[in-house]
Predict the 3D structure of the following.
Amino acid sequence: ADRVYIEPITLDFAKRVIYKERPDAILGSLGGQTGLNLVVDLHEDGILDEFGVEILGTDLQAINRAEDRELFRALMQEIEEPVPESTIVHTVEEAVQFCQKLGYPVVVRPAYTLGGTGGGFADNEKELREICEAGLKISPVHQCLIEQSIAGYKEIEYEVMRDANNNAIVVCNMENVDPVGIHTGDSIVVAPVQTLTDHENQMLRSASLKIIRALKICGGCNVQLALDPKSFKYYVIEVNPRVSRSSALASKATGYPIAKISAKLAVGLTLDEILNPITKTSYACFEPAIDYVVSKFARFPFDKFPNADRHLGTQMKATGEVMSIGRTMEESLLKAVRSLEMKVDHLEKKEMLDLSDEELLEEIKKSDDTRIFAIAQWLRNGNSAETIHEITKMDPFFLAHIQRIIDLEKQLKEHPNDIALLKEAKTYGFSDSYIARIWNTTPKAIYDLRKQNHIIPVYKMVDTCAGEFKSATPYFYSTYEEENESIPSDKKKIVVLGSGPIRIGQGVEFDYATVHCVETLRNEGYEAIIINNNPETVSTDFSISDKLYFEPLTTEDVMHVIELEK
Protein backbone atom coordinates (compact mmCIF):
# COMPACT_ATOMS: atom_id res chain seq x y z
CA ALA A 1 0.00 0.00 0.00
CA ASP A 2 1.05 3.63 -0.42
CA ARG A 3 0.21 4.24 3.24
CA VAL A 4 -0.54 1.87 6.09
CA TYR A 5 -2.18 2.88 9.36
CA ILE A 6 -1.89 0.40 12.21
CA GLU A 7 -4.91 1.41 14.26
CA PRO A 8 -7.97 -0.21 15.84
CA ILE A 9 -10.62 -0.79 13.16
CA THR A 10 -13.22 1.36 14.91
CA LEU A 11 -15.39 4.30 13.94
CA ASP A 12 -13.32 6.81 15.89
CA PHE A 13 -9.96 5.88 14.33
CA ALA A 14 -11.36 5.50 10.82
CA LYS A 15 -12.82 9.03 11.09
CA ARG A 16 -9.43 10.46 12.04
CA VAL A 17 -7.79 8.83 9.01
CA ILE A 18 -10.55 10.12 6.70
CA TYR A 19 -10.16 13.59 8.18
CA LYS A 20 -6.38 13.52 7.61
CA GLU A 21 -6.21 11.76 4.22
CA ARG A 22 -9.42 13.11 2.58
CA PRO A 23 -9.87 9.96 0.41
CA ASP A 24 -12.04 10.02 -2.71
CA ALA A 25 -13.58 6.67 -1.90
CA ILE A 26 -13.73 3.79 0.57
CA LEU A 27 -13.90 0.05 -0.13
CA GLY A 28 -15.19 -2.19 2.68
CA SER A 29 -16.27 -5.48 1.16
CA LEU A 30 -12.74 -6.95 0.97
CA GLY A 31 -12.30 -6.59 4.75
CA GLY A 32 -14.94 -9.24 5.38
CA GLN A 33 -17.61 -8.63 8.01
CA THR A 34 -15.37 -6.20 9.93
CA GLY A 35 -14.82 -3.94 6.92
CA LEU A 36 -18.48 -4.10 5.96
CA ASN A 37 -19.74 -3.15 9.42
CA LEU A 38 -17.31 -0.22 9.64
CA VAL A 39 -18.46 1.25 6.32
CA VAL A 40 -22.06 1.11 7.59
CA ASP A 41 -21.02 2.85 10.85
CA LEU A 42 -19.12 5.57 8.95
CA HIS A 43 -22.10 6.26 6.72
CA GLU A 44 -24.50 6.49 9.64
CA ASP A 45 -22.11 8.85 11.38
CA GLY A 46 -22.36 11.24 8.40
CA ILE A 47 -18.61 11.69 7.88
CA LEU A 48 -18.67 10.11 4.40
CA ASP A 49 -21.21 12.66 3.16
CA GLU A 50 -19.42 15.48 4.94
CA PHE A 51 -16.11 14.81 3.15
CA GLY A 52 -17.64 13.49 -0.08
CA VAL A 53 -16.23 9.95 0.26
CA GLU A 54 -17.81 7.54 -2.23
CA ILE A 55 -18.53 3.93 -1.20
CA LEU A 56 -17.00 1.65 -3.84
CA GLY A 57 -18.17 -1.80 -4.88
CA THR A 58 -21.35 -2.99 -3.22
CA ASP A 59 -23.28 0.10 -2.11
CA LEU A 60 -24.81 0.74 1.26
CA GLN A 61 -28.36 -0.15 0.34
CA ALA A 62 -27.19 -3.55 -0.96
CA ILE A 63 -25.13 -4.20 2.18
CA ASN A 64 -28.11 -3.39 4.40
CA ARG A 65 -30.51 -5.48 2.34
CA ALA A 66 -28.22 -8.49 2.57
CA GLU A 67 -27.17 -8.08 6.22
CA ASP A 68 -30.34 -6.82 7.90
CA ARG A 69 -32.52 -9.89 8.42
CA GLU A 70 -35.82 -8.02 7.98
CA LEU A 71 -34.87 -6.17 4.79
CA PHE A 72 -33.39 -9.37 3.33
CA ARG A 73 -36.53 -11.36 4.01
CA ALA A 74 -38.73 -8.65 2.49
CA LEU A 75 -36.60 -8.62 -0.68
CA MET A 76 -36.71 -12.42 -0.97
CA GLN A 77 -40.52 -12.36 -0.72
CA GLU A 78 -40.62 -9.61 -3.34
CA ILE A 79 -38.59 -11.65 -5.87
CA GLU A 80 -40.36 -14.87 -4.80
CA GLU A 81 -37.34 -16.74 -3.49
CA PRO A 82 -38.26 -19.05 -0.59
CA VAL A 83 -36.84 -18.31 2.87
CA PRO A 84 -37.56 -20.37 6.01
CA GLU A 85 -40.44 -19.05 8.09
CA SER A 86 -39.00 -16.66 10.63
CA THR A 87 -39.41 -13.54 12.71
CA ILE A 88 -37.18 -10.79 14.07
CA VAL A 89 -37.14 -10.41 17.85
CA HIS A 90 -35.68 -7.79 20.17
CA THR A 91 -36.60 -9.57 23.45
CA VAL A 92 -36.58 -13.15 24.69
CA GLU A 93 -40.35 -13.06 25.32
CA GLU A 94 -41.10 -12.22 21.67
CA ALA A 95 -39.04 -15.27 20.66
CA VAL A 96 -40.92 -17.57 23.06
CA GLN A 97 -44.32 -16.38 21.76
CA PHE A 98 -43.31 -16.90 18.11
CA CYS A 99 -42.07 -20.43 18.79
CA GLN A 100 -45.34 -21.37 20.50
CA LYS A 101 -46.96 -20.82 17.07
CA LEU A 102 -44.14 -22.15 14.83
CA GLY A 103 -43.06 -25.13 16.95
CA TYR A 104 -39.53 -26.44 17.58
CA PRO A 105 -36.71 -26.97 16.58
CA VAL A 106 -35.70 -23.44 15.58
CA VAL A 107 -32.45 -21.65 14.71
CA VAL A 108 -31.44 -18.42 16.46
CA ARG A 109 -29.30 -16.08 14.29
CA PRO A 110 -28.11 -12.75 15.77
CA ALA A 111 -27.91 -9.88 13.21
CA TYR A 112 -24.57 -8.44 12.04
CA THR A 113 -22.31 -11.00 13.74
CA LEU A 114 -19.40 -12.94 12.31
CA GLY A 115 -19.12 -16.73 11.87
CA GLY A 116 -22.55 -17.45 13.37
CA THR A 117 -21.43 -16.11 16.75
CA GLY A 118 -24.10 -16.29 19.44
CA GLY A 119 -26.47 -18.42 17.34
CA GLY A 120 -27.57 -22.01 17.64
CA PHE A 121 -30.37 -24.59 17.54
CA ALA A 122 -33.07 -24.66 20.19
CA ASP A 123 -35.18 -27.80 20.66
CA ASN A 124 -37.35 -26.41 23.47
CA GLU A 125 -38.24 -23.25 25.38
CA LYS A 126 -35.43 -23.58 27.94
CA GLU A 127 -32.75 -23.77 25.22
CA LEU A 128 -34.43 -20.94 23.30
CA ARG A 129 -34.31 -18.62 26.30
CA GLU A 130 -30.60 -19.33 26.89
CA ILE A 131 -29.46 -18.94 23.27
CA CYS A 132 -31.69 -15.95 22.53
CA GLU A 133 -30.55 -14.02 25.60
CA ALA A 134 -26.90 -14.51 24.66
CA GLY A 135 -27.57 -13.69 21.00
CA LEU A 136 -29.33 -10.41 21.75
CA LYS A 137 -26.37 -9.31 23.89
CA ILE A 138 -23.86 -10.10 21.13
CA SER A 139 -25.77 -8.51 18.22
CA PRO A 140 -24.63 -4.90 17.69
CA VAL A 141 -28.22 -3.91 16.75
CA HIS A 142 -29.76 -6.05 19.52
CA GLN A 143 -31.83 -8.18 17.15
CA CYS A 144 -32.10 -11.90 16.50
CA LEU A 145 -33.76 -13.85 13.74
CA ILE A 146 -35.73 -16.89 14.92
CA GLU A 147 -36.37 -19.25 12.01
CA GLN A 148 -37.72 -22.74 11.42
CA SER A 149 -34.96 -25.35 11.45
CA ILE A 150 -33.99 -26.92 8.14
CA ALA A 151 -31.25 -29.06 9.66
CA GLY A 152 -30.63 -32.14 7.51
CA TYR A 153 -31.16 -30.36 4.18
CA LYS A 154 -28.22 -30.30 1.76
CA GLU A 155 -26.18 -27.13 2.11
CA ILE A 156 -25.08 -25.74 -1.25
CA GLU A 157 -23.10 -22.54 -1.85
CA TYR A 158 -22.68 -20.48 -4.99
CA GLU A 159 -19.85 -17.99 -5.28
CA VAL A 160 -21.19 -15.30 -7.61
CA MET A 161 -19.77 -12.13 -9.26
CA ARG A 162 -21.75 -9.17 -10.59
CA ASP A 163 -20.63 -5.89 -12.15
CA ALA A 164 -22.28 -2.46 -12.41
CA ASN A 165 -23.73 -3.38 -15.85
CA ASN A 166 -25.65 -6.30 -14.30
CA ASN A 167 -23.45 -8.98 -15.90
CA ALA A 168 -23.31 -11.86 -13.40
CA ILE A 169 -21.55 -15.23 -13.36
CA VAL A 170 -21.18 -18.19 -11.03
CA VAL A 171 -17.49 -18.64 -10.24
CA CYS A 172 -17.90 -21.91 -8.38
CA ASN A 173 -20.54 -24.04 -6.73
CA MET A 174 -19.74 -25.99 -3.58
CA GLU A 175 -21.47 -28.70 -1.62
CA ASN A 176 -21.18 -29.28 2.12
CA VAL A 177 -20.70 -32.98 2.90
CA ASP A 178 -22.24 -32.22 6.31
CA PRO A 179 -25.88 -31.15 5.88
CA VAL A 180 -27.39 -27.89 7.15
CA GLY A 181 -26.82 -27.53 10.90
CA ILE A 182 -23.02 -27.46 10.91
CA HIS A 183 -21.45 -24.09 10.06
CA THR A 184 -20.01 -24.12 6.55
CA GLY A 185 -16.63 -23.02 7.98
CA ASP A 186 -16.48 -26.28 9.96
CA SER A 187 -17.99 -28.58 7.32
CA ILE A 188 -16.15 -30.76 4.85
CA VAL A 189 -16.86 -28.99 1.55
CA VAL A 190 -16.39 -30.33 -1.99
CA ALA A 191 -16.35 -28.43 -5.26
CA PRO A 192 -17.95 -28.68 -7.72
CA VAL A 193 -21.25 -30.02 -6.31
CA GLN A 194 -21.33 -33.81 -6.52
CA THR A 195 -24.83 -35.04 -5.74
CA LEU A 196 -27.18 -32.63 -7.54
CA THR A 197 -28.96 -33.44 -10.76
CA ASP A 198 -28.55 -30.93 -13.58
CA HIS A 199 -32.09 -29.71 -12.91
CA GLU A 200 -31.33 -29.02 -9.23
CA ASN A 201 -28.04 -27.31 -10.03
CA GLN A 202 -29.63 -25.04 -12.68
CA MET A 203 -32.53 -24.21 -10.33
CA LEU A 204 -30.20 -23.11 -7.49
CA ARG A 205 -27.79 -21.41 -9.88
CA SER A 206 -30.61 -19.33 -11.38
CA ALA A 207 -31.80 -18.44 -7.88
CA SER A 208 -28.28 -17.28 -6.90
CA LEU A 209 -27.93 -15.06 -9.98
CA LYS A 210 -31.42 -13.66 -9.46
CA ILE A 211 -30.61 -12.82 -5.81
CA ILE A 212 -27.27 -11.09 -6.54
CA ARG A 213 -28.98 -9.03 -9.27
CA ALA A 214 -31.89 -8.10 -7.00
CA LEU A 215 -29.46 -7.04 -4.25
CA LYS A 216 -27.43 -5.04 -6.84
CA ILE A 217 -24.16 -6.32 -5.39
CA CYS A 218 -21.06 -5.18 -7.24
CA GLY A 219 -18.20 -7.63 -6.84
CA GLY A 220 -18.01 -11.07 -5.24
CA CYS A 221 -20.79 -12.54 -3.15
CA ASN A 222 -21.57 -15.86 -1.51
CA VAL A 223 -25.11 -17.32 -1.61
CA GLN A 224 -25.95 -20.20 0.74
CA LEU A 225 -28.94 -22.40 -0.05
CA ALA A 226 -30.58 -25.39 1.60
CA LEU A 227 -32.04 -28.09 -0.63
CA ASP A 228 -34.48 -30.74 0.53
CA PRO A 229 -32.89 -34.06 -0.54
CA LYS A 230 -36.33 -35.64 -1.08
CA SER A 231 -37.93 -32.97 -3.28
CA PHE A 232 -37.12 -29.88 -5.33
CA LYS A 233 -37.92 -27.64 -2.36
CA TYR A 234 -35.15 -25.23 -1.39
CA TYR A 235 -34.63 -22.25 0.90
CA VAL A 236 -32.24 -19.30 0.76
CA ILE A 237 -30.20 -19.43 4.00
CA GLU A 238 -28.18 -16.25 3.69
CA VAL A 239 -26.09 -14.04 1.45
CA ASN A 240 -22.65 -12.60 2.30
CA PRO A 241 -22.26 -9.41 0.23
CA ARG A 242 -18.47 -9.52 0.59
CA VAL A 243 -15.50 -11.82 0.25
CA SER A 244 -15.60 -14.61 2.83
CA ARG A 245 -13.71 -17.78 3.66
CA SER A 246 -15.76 -19.49 0.98
CA SER A 247 -14.53 -16.91 -1.55
CA ALA A 248 -10.92 -17.76 -0.73
CA LEU A 249 -11.74 -21.44 -1.23
CA ALA A 250 -13.61 -20.79 -4.50
CA SER A 251 -10.69 -18.68 -5.79
CA LYS A 252 -8.13 -21.37 -5.11
CA ALA A 253 -10.43 -24.21 -6.23
CA THR A 254 -11.07 -22.69 -9.64
CA GLY A 255 -8.03 -20.46 -10.07
CA TYR A 256 -10.39 -17.50 -10.61
CA PRO A 257 -9.00 -14.58 -8.54
CA ILE A 258 -12.18 -13.30 -6.87
CA ALA A 259 -10.64 -10.55 -4.72
CA LYS A 260 -8.54 -9.18 -7.59
CA ILE A 261 -11.52 -9.03 -9.93
CA SER A 262 -13.83 -7.64 -7.18
CA ALA A 263 -11.38 -4.75 -6.78
CA LYS A 264 -11.47 -4.02 -10.51
CA LEU A 265 -15.27 -4.15 -10.51
CA ALA A 266 -15.30 -1.76 -7.53
CA VAL A 267 -13.48 0.93 -9.52
CA GLY A 268 -15.95 0.62 -12.38
CA LEU A 269 -14.62 -1.98 -14.81
CA THR A 270 -17.03 -4.65 -16.05
CA LEU A 271 -16.57 -8.43 -16.34
CA ASP A 272 -16.46 -8.30 -20.15
CA GLU A 273 -13.54 -5.81 -20.07
CA ILE A 274 -11.28 -7.64 -17.61
CA LEU A 275 -8.92 -10.27 -19.00
CA ASN A 276 -8.80 -13.52 -17.04
CA PRO A 277 -5.26 -13.40 -15.56
CA ILE A 278 -4.94 -17.19 -15.85
CA THR A 279 -5.58 -17.80 -19.53
CA LYS A 280 -4.71 -14.22 -20.58
CA THR A 281 -6.99 -14.86 -23.60
CA SER A 282 -10.51 -15.33 -22.20
CA TYR A 283 -12.39 -12.68 -20.22
CA ALA A 284 -13.50 -12.55 -16.59
CA CYS A 285 -17.15 -13.08 -17.61
CA PHE A 286 -16.24 -16.62 -18.70
CA GLU A 287 -17.40 -19.10 -16.04
CA PRO A 288 -14.64 -21.40 -14.79
CA ALA A 289 -14.91 -25.11 -15.66
CA ILE A 290 -13.33 -27.70 -13.37
CA ASP A 291 -12.03 -31.13 -14.41
CA TYR A 292 -11.11 -32.31 -10.89
CA VAL A 293 -12.57 -32.60 -7.38
CA VAL A 294 -11.60 -30.16 -4.63
CA SER A 295 -12.03 -31.04 -0.93
CA LYS A 296 -11.82 -28.63 1.96
CA PHE A 297 -11.33 -29.90 5.52
CA ALA A 298 -11.39 -27.58 8.53
CA ARG A 299 -8.48 -27.58 10.99
CA PHE A 300 -9.69 -27.43 14.61
CA PRO A 301 -7.80 -26.24 17.72
CA PHE A 302 -8.96 -29.12 19.94
CA ASP A 303 -5.48 -30.67 20.12
CA LYS A 304 -4.52 -27.54 22.11
CA PHE A 305 -7.83 -27.46 24.04
CA PRO A 306 -8.54 -31.07 24.95
CA ASN A 307 -11.38 -30.12 27.34
CA ALA A 308 -13.23 -27.80 24.96
CA ASP A 309 -16.73 -28.63 23.71
CA ARG A 310 -15.98 -30.36 20.40
CA HIS A 311 -19.60 -30.43 19.26
CA LEU A 312 -20.12 -28.67 15.91
CA GLY A 313 -23.18 -26.50 15.26
CA THR A 314 -24.07 -23.10 13.81
CA GLN A 315 -21.09 -21.33 15.46
CA MET A 316 -17.77 -21.74 13.71
CA LYS A 317 -15.00 -23.45 15.71
CA ALA A 318 -12.30 -24.06 13.08
CA THR A 319 -9.14 -21.94 13.12
CA GLY A 320 -8.07 -22.76 9.58
CA GLU A 321 -8.51 -25.18 6.72
CA VAL A 322 -6.76 -27.25 4.08
CA MET A 323 -7.70 -27.83 0.48
CA SER A 324 -6.73 -30.67 -1.79
CA ILE A 325 -7.24 -31.39 -5.47
CA GLY A 326 -7.66 -34.87 -6.96
CA ARG A 327 -9.12 -36.55 -10.03
CA THR A 328 -11.36 -38.84 -7.98
CA MET A 329 -13.50 -38.12 -4.95
CA GLU A 330 -11.43 -40.63 -2.94
CA GLU A 331 -8.07 -39.14 -3.95
CA SER A 332 -9.28 -35.66 -3.05
CA LEU A 333 -10.56 -36.77 0.39
CA LEU A 334 -7.45 -38.73 1.32
CA LYS A 335 -5.08 -35.97 0.20
CA ALA A 336 -7.05 -33.54 2.38
CA VAL A 337 -6.85 -35.86 5.40
CA ARG A 338 -3.05 -36.11 4.93
CA SER A 339 -2.81 -32.31 4.72
CA LEU A 340 -4.46 -31.74 8.11
CA GLU A 341 -1.28 -32.45 10.11
CA MET A 342 -3.22 -34.36 12.75
CA LYS A 343 -0.74 -37.26 12.77
CA VAL A 344 -2.96 -39.27 10.41
CA ASP A 345 -1.99 -40.50 6.95
CA HIS A 346 -5.32 -42.13 6.08
CA LEU A 347 -9.01 -42.10 6.97
CA GLU A 348 -8.34 -43.93 10.24
CA LYS A 349 -7.65 -42.77 13.77
CA LYS A 350 -5.76 -45.09 16.12
CA GLU A 351 -8.08 -44.17 19.02
CA MET A 352 -11.08 -45.57 17.13
CA LEU A 353 -9.71 -48.94 16.03
CA ASP A 354 -10.81 -50.68 19.26
CA LEU A 355 -14.18 -48.98 19.78
CA SER A 356 -17.32 -51.13 19.79
CA ASP A 357 -20.14 -50.44 17.32
CA GLU A 358 -22.20 -48.80 20.10
CA GLU A 359 -19.32 -46.47 21.00
CA LEU A 360 -18.79 -45.60 17.33
CA LEU A 361 -22.48 -44.75 16.91
CA GLU A 362 -22.24 -42.44 19.92
CA GLU A 363 -19.24 -40.72 18.30
CA ILE A 364 -21.15 -40.33 15.02
CA LYS A 365 -24.25 -38.92 16.73
CA LYS A 366 -22.11 -36.31 18.51
CA SER A 367 -21.24 -34.55 15.22
CA ASP A 368 -17.80 -33.37 16.27
CA ASP A 369 -14.54 -32.81 14.41
CA THR A 370 -13.60 -36.52 14.23
CA ARG A 371 -16.94 -37.78 12.93
CA ILE A 372 -15.61 -38.65 9.45
CA PHE A 373 -13.04 -41.01 11.06
CA ALA A 374 -15.76 -42.67 13.15
CA ILE A 375 -17.87 -43.18 10.01
CA ALA A 376 -14.93 -44.83 8.24
CA GLN A 377 -14.33 -47.11 11.24
CA TRP A 378 -18.02 -48.05 11.39
CA LEU A 379 -17.92 -49.10 7.73
CA ARG A 380 -14.56 -50.85 8.27
CA ASN A 381 -16.26 -53.00 10.92
CA GLY A 382 -18.64 -54.23 8.22
CA ASN A 383 -21.70 -52.17 9.15
CA SER A 384 -24.14 -50.57 6.73
CA ALA A 385 -23.92 -47.04 5.35
CA GLU A 386 -27.72 -46.81 5.60
CA THR A 387 -27.55 -46.32 9.40
CA ILE A 388 -25.03 -43.49 8.97
CA HIS A 389 -27.27 -41.79 6.40
CA GLU A 390 -30.23 -41.93 8.83
CA ILE A 391 -28.21 -40.44 11.72
CA THR A 392 -26.14 -37.79 9.91
CA LYS A 393 -28.31 -37.10 6.81
CA MET A 394 -25.10 -37.23 4.76
CA ASP A 395 -25.78 -38.03 1.12
CA PRO A 396 -25.34 -41.76 0.31
CA PHE A 397 -23.03 -40.68 -2.55
CA PHE A 398 -20.33 -39.53 -0.10
CA LEU A 399 -20.77 -42.61 2.07
CA ALA A 400 -20.38 -44.81 -1.02
CA HIS A 401 -17.00 -43.21 -1.74
CA ILE A 402 -15.83 -43.77 1.83
CA GLN A 403 -17.04 -47.36 1.43
CA ARG A 404 -14.92 -47.70 -1.72
CA ILE A 405 -11.82 -46.65 0.27
CA ILE A 406 -12.67 -49.31 2.88
CA ASP A 407 -13.19 -51.98 0.19
CA LEU A 408 -9.82 -51.18 -1.32
CA GLU A 409 -8.17 -51.47 2.11
CA LYS A 410 -9.55 -55.02 2.41
CA GLN A 411 -8.23 -55.99 -1.03
CA LEU A 412 -4.79 -54.60 -0.19
CA LYS A 413 -4.73 -56.64 3.03
CA GLU A 414 -5.65 -59.82 1.14
CA HIS A 415 -3.18 -59.35 -1.73
CA PRO A 416 0.16 -58.03 -0.47
CA ASN A 417 2.57 -56.75 -3.16
CA ASP A 418 -0.05 -56.88 -5.93
CA ILE A 419 1.14 -54.28 -8.48
CA ALA A 420 -2.24 -53.70 -10.15
CA LEU A 421 -3.81 -53.08 -6.72
CA LEU A 422 -0.94 -50.78 -5.77
CA LYS A 423 -1.64 -48.68 -8.84
CA GLU A 424 -5.37 -48.55 -8.06
CA ALA A 425 -4.68 -47.56 -4.45
CA LYS A 426 -2.46 -44.68 -5.59
CA THR A 427 -5.15 -43.51 -8.05
CA TYR A 428 -7.52 -43.34 -5.09
CA GLY A 429 -5.10 -41.27 -3.02
CA PHE A 430 -3.68 -43.90 -0.62
CA SER A 431 -0.36 -42.87 0.95
CA ASP A 432 2.80 -44.98 0.80
CA SER A 433 3.00 -44.98 4.60
CA TYR A 434 -0.48 -46.50 4.91
CA ILE A 435 0.16 -49.18 2.26
CA ALA A 436 3.49 -49.97 3.95
CA ARG A 437 1.69 -50.47 7.27
CA ILE A 438 -0.76 -52.95 5.74
CA TRP A 439 1.95 -54.83 3.83
CA ASN A 440 4.37 -54.90 6.81
CA THR A 441 7.13 -53.05 5.05
CA THR A 442 8.60 -49.54 4.91
CA PRO A 443 7.32 -46.53 2.96
CA LYS A 444 10.72 -46.49 1.20
CA ALA A 445 10.18 -50.07 -0.01
CA ILE A 446 6.73 -49.16 -1.39
CA TYR A 447 8.25 -46.13 -3.08
CA ASP A 448 11.00 -48.24 -4.71
CA LEU A 449 8.41 -50.79 -5.84
CA ARG A 450 6.38 -48.00 -7.46
CA LYS A 451 9.42 -46.57 -9.26
CA GLN A 452 10.35 -49.99 -10.66
CA ASN A 453 6.82 -50.32 -12.03
CA HIS A 454 6.52 -46.69 -13.26
CA ILE A 455 3.73 -45.83 -10.82
CA ILE A 456 4.62 -42.19 -10.26
CA PRO A 457 2.36 -39.16 -10.14
CA VAL A 458 1.97 -36.62 -12.93
CA TYR A 459 1.05 -32.99 -12.35
CA LYS A 460 -2.05 -31.40 -13.80
CA MET A 461 -2.67 -27.69 -14.21
CA VAL A 462 -5.42 -25.60 -12.63
CA ASP A 463 -6.43 -23.39 -15.56
CA THR A 464 -10.10 -22.30 -15.00
CA CYS A 465 -11.15 -23.76 -18.36
CA ALA A 466 -10.59 -27.55 -18.05
CA GLY A 467 -7.88 -27.42 -20.69
CA GLU A 468 -9.94 -25.59 -23.31
CA PHE A 469 -7.48 -22.69 -23.71
CA LYS A 470 -3.75 -22.54 -23.26
CA SER A 471 -3.08 -21.31 -19.75
CA ALA A 472 -0.38 -18.94 -18.59
CA THR A 473 -0.38 -19.96 -14.92
CA PRO A 474 2.01 -22.29 -13.15
CA TYR A 475 -0.50 -23.87 -10.75
CA PHE A 476 -0.40 -27.68 -10.27
CA TYR A 477 -1.70 -30.70 -8.35
CA SER A 478 -0.56 -34.33 -8.46
CA THR A 479 -2.55 -37.31 -9.62
CA TYR A 480 -1.87 -40.79 -11.00
CA GLU A 481 -2.63 -40.46 -14.70
CA GLU A 482 -0.75 -40.43 -18.00
CA GLU A 483 0.10 -36.91 -19.13
CA ASN A 484 2.34 -34.57 -17.11
CA GLU A 485 1.56 -30.87 -17.58
CA SER A 486 4.31 -29.48 -15.34
CA ILE A 487 7.46 -29.03 -17.42
CA PRO A 488 10.59 -28.34 -15.35
CA SER A 489 12.87 -25.51 -16.51
CA ASP A 490 16.70 -25.48 -16.64
CA LYS A 491 17.01 -22.52 -14.26
CA LYS A 492 18.49 -22.63 -10.77
CA LYS A 493 15.51 -23.19 -8.51
CA ILE A 494 14.54 -23.35 -4.86
CA VAL A 495 11.50 -25.02 -3.31
CA VAL A 496 9.93 -23.12 -0.43
CA LEU A 497 7.66 -25.16 1.84
CA GLY A 498 4.51 -23.43 3.08
CA SER A 499 3.24 -23.87 6.62
CA GLY A 500 -0.05 -25.68 6.00
CA PRO A 501 -3.31 -24.96 7.82
CA ILE A 502 -3.68 -22.17 10.36
CA ARG A 503 -3.83 -23.55 13.89
CA ILE A 504 -3.15 -22.36 17.42
CA GLY A 505 0.51 -21.32 17.62
CA GLN A 506 0.94 -21.13 13.85
CA GLY A 507 -0.89 -18.44 11.95
CA VAL A 508 -0.57 -16.20 8.96
CA GLU A 509 2.80 -14.81 10.14
CA PHE A 510 4.57 -17.82 8.61
CA ASP A 511 2.78 -17.26 5.34
CA TYR A 512 4.03 -13.67 5.42
CA ALA A 513 7.56 -15.04 5.78
CA THR A 514 7.02 -17.55 2.95
CA VAL A 515 5.83 -14.87 0.52
CA HIS A 516 8.70 -12.48 1.34
CA CYS A 517 11.17 -15.33 1.00
CA VAL A 518 9.81 -16.13 -2.47
CA GLU A 519 9.88 -12.49 -3.58
CA THR A 520 13.51 -12.22 -2.47
CA LEU A 521 14.53 -15.43 -4.25
CA ARG A 522 12.86 -14.25 -7.47
CA ASN A 523 14.67 -10.89 -7.25
CA GLU A 524 17.96 -12.79 -6.82
CA GLY A 525 17.29 -14.60 -10.10
CA TYR A 526 16.19 -18.02 -8.78
CA GLU A 527 13.04 -19.82 -9.87
CA ALA A 528 10.93 -20.02 -6.69
CA ILE A 529 8.53 -22.93 -6.22
CA ILE A 530 5.95 -23.06 -3.42
CA ILE A 531 4.35 -26.21 -2.02
CA ASN A 532 1.40 -25.49 0.29
CA ASN A 533 -2.22 -26.52 0.87
CA ASN A 534 -3.92 -23.67 2.72
CA PRO A 535 -6.52 -21.95 0.52
CA GLU A 536 -6.75 -18.85 2.74
CA THR A 537 -3.16 -17.73 2.33
CA VAL A 538 -1.25 -15.44 0.00
CA SER A 539 1.41 -18.08 -0.75
CA THR A 540 -1.19 -20.21 -2.55
CA ASP A 541 -2.00 -17.38 -4.94
CA PHE A 542 -0.67 -18.39 -8.38
CA SER A 543 0.79 -14.91 -9.02
CA ILE A 544 3.25 -15.05 -6.09
CA SER A 545 5.70 -17.77 -7.11
CA ASP A 546 7.13 -19.03 -10.39
CA LYS A 547 5.36 -22.32 -9.76
CA LEU A 548 2.78 -23.41 -7.19
CA TYR A 549 2.08 -27.01 -6.17
CA PHE A 550 -1.09 -27.54 -4.12
CA GLU A 551 -0.09 -30.63 -2.17
CA PRO A 552 -0.06 -32.16 1.33
CA LEU A 553 3.15 -31.30 3.20
CA THR A 554 4.32 -34.89 3.70
CA THR A 555 7.65 -36.48 2.79
CA GLU A 556 6.06 -38.51 0.00
CA ASP A 557 4.18 -35.64 -1.66
CA VAL A 558 7.03 -33.15 -1.37
CA MET A 559 9.68 -35.60 -2.64
CA HIS A 560 7.64 -36.21 -5.80
CA VAL A 561 7.83 -32.51 -6.62
CA ILE A 562 11.54 -32.35 -5.80
CA GLU A 563 12.26 -35.32 -8.09
CA LEU A 564 10.34 -33.79 -10.99
CA GLU A 565 11.80 -30.29 -10.61
CA LYS A 566 15.34 -31.48 -9.83
